[in-house]
Each structure stands twice: as C-alpha cells, then as structure tokens.
Amino acid sequence: MFCLTIAMVCSAMKCEECSSSMVKIKKQDKSPPELVIDVETSATGEVVKSYVDEKTAIEVGLFENVNIRIRAKDNESGIKDLSIEGTFSIVCSNAGGGEPIDGTIHGSAHFDPATSRCAPERAITTDLKINASDFCNGQVKEGFYTIVGKSLNYAGKSSTIFLEVTFR
C-alpha cells in the first residue's frame, strides 16, 4: 500500500481577515471545487499536461517515470478535504509467470478552521511518483494506474477527477 501526504496551501490559522491564501467561507456557494491533474514525465521533468476533464486516459512508455499531482481550488468557500486514491496492476516479464502485482494508493488531508471563518483557497497533493519498471527490475511487460482525486468545499459541494495511466 502506498501512502501519500497532502500539503494544504495556507498560512497562519489566525485569518479573521483572511490572508491572501485563504477565503472567507461562503455556505451559499453552489459550485464544487475545481480539480486539475498535473502530469510530469521523465523526458522533461516539467508538467507535460494539466487535465481538467472529469475522466482522462493517457499512455506512457514502459520505462517512463511519471509524477502526478492533484490541485484543488475554491475561491468561494475554500477547500475542506482533498484526497487521492487509486489502484495499480503491473505485469512483469521476468517473474511470477505473468501474474500481476496489484496495489492501492491512499492519501488525504482535512482542513478544519475550528473557530475561524476562513479556509484555504487551494490545496495540492504531494507528487505521486510512478514507474512500472520499478516493480520488475526493469522487465515490465505492461501495467496501469487508476487515480481518483476528490475534493470537498465548506458549502458541502464535491468534485471528482479520474486519470488512467497505461504503460505500454
């Protein structure tokens, strides 16, 4: 099982006047948080593509390093929760007779303003670093990761974004 930590982008908890990275919580907000998935590859080390569609599927090379992060933004009622979950399945050509190596990914963060009326406007997960060949000593046959990002704002509205990464 992989565990990730999530960094909430916010400043001091004392924000009665809301610092620049915080927003006053508006319970009447009718929209969910905006979610974006950033994907970096080993070829450039920079964000290759940012995905905003609810469901996205991409293919990468068998030996490619991929970094994935999820960003949430809500400038009306702030971010209450941000999570990243998923599954993966990797098939090696050198071991296990083609049996897949399966696993799960879990990471989440909750921001509680306690007595404050402010919440973070943005949140971001730490990078999820994936490379299918890491499981197979460089002899990967195929594999995939399915990533699900979820966010909830203080008005109770939620959003979800999916990414499937196939190694070929």
Question: What does this molecule look like?
Answer:
The chain is mainly β and 168 residues long. The chain has one domain: Immunoglobulin-like (Sandwich), CATH 2.60.40. The protein starts with a strand and ends with a strand. A hairpin with a 5-residue loop joins β4 (34-41) and β5 (47-51). 0% of the residues lie in helices and 57% in strands. It has strands at residues 2-4, 6-9, 22-24, 34-41, 47-51, 55-60, 66-73, 79-92, 100-110, 118-120, 122-125, 128-130, 140-153, 158-167. The strands form three sheets. A six-stranded mixed β-sheet has the order 1-9-8-13-14-6, with no helix packed on it. Strands 2, 4, 5, 7, 11 and 12 form a six-stranded antiparallel β-sheet that branches. Strands 3-10 form a two-stranded antiparallel sheet.
Task: Set down the secondary structure blueprint.
Layout: E1 2-4, E2 6-9, E3 22-24, E4 34-41, E5 47-51, E6 55-60, E7 66-73, E8 79-92, E9 100-110, E10 118-120, E11 122-125, E12 128-130, E13 140-153, E14 158-167
Parallel strand pairs: 1-9, 6-14
Antiparallel strand pairs: 2-11, 3-10, 4-5, 4-7, 7-11, 7-12, 8-9, 8-13, 13-14
Side-by-side strand order of the widest sheet:
1-9-8-13-14-6
Mean pLDDT: 84
The CATH class assignment is Mainly Beta
Largest sheet: 6 strands, mixed
Q: Which runs of at least 5 residues are low in confidence (pLDDT < 50)?
A: 1-15
- N- to C-terminal distance: 23 Å
* CATH fold annotation: Immunoglobulin-like
Short structural summary:
With 168 residues, this protein is mostly beta strands. The protein contains no helices and 14 strands.
